[in-house]
Amino acid sequence: MTDGREGWAVILGASSGMGEATSRALAVAGYRIFGIHLDFRAGLAHVDEVKAAIEAAGSEALFINMNAADDEKRASALATLRERFDRSEAAGHHPYVRVVMHSLAFGSLVPYITDDPKAGVDRKKMEMTQDVMANSLVYWVQDLYRGGFLEQGSKIFSMTSEGSSRVVPSYGVVSSAKAALESHTRQLAMELARTGKGITANTIRAGVTITPALLKIPEHDEMIAITKRRNPTGRMTTPQDVATTIVALSGEGVDFINGEIIGVDGGEFITGS
Ligand SMILES: NC(=O)c1ccc[n+]([C@@H]2O[C@H](COP(=O)([O-])OP(=O)(O)OC[C@H]3O[C@@H](n4cnc5c(N)ncnc54)[C@H](O)[C@@H]3O)[C@@H](O)[C@H]2O)c1
Question: Which domains does the chain have, with CATH numbers?
Answer without folding.
Answer: 6-265 (3.40.50.720)
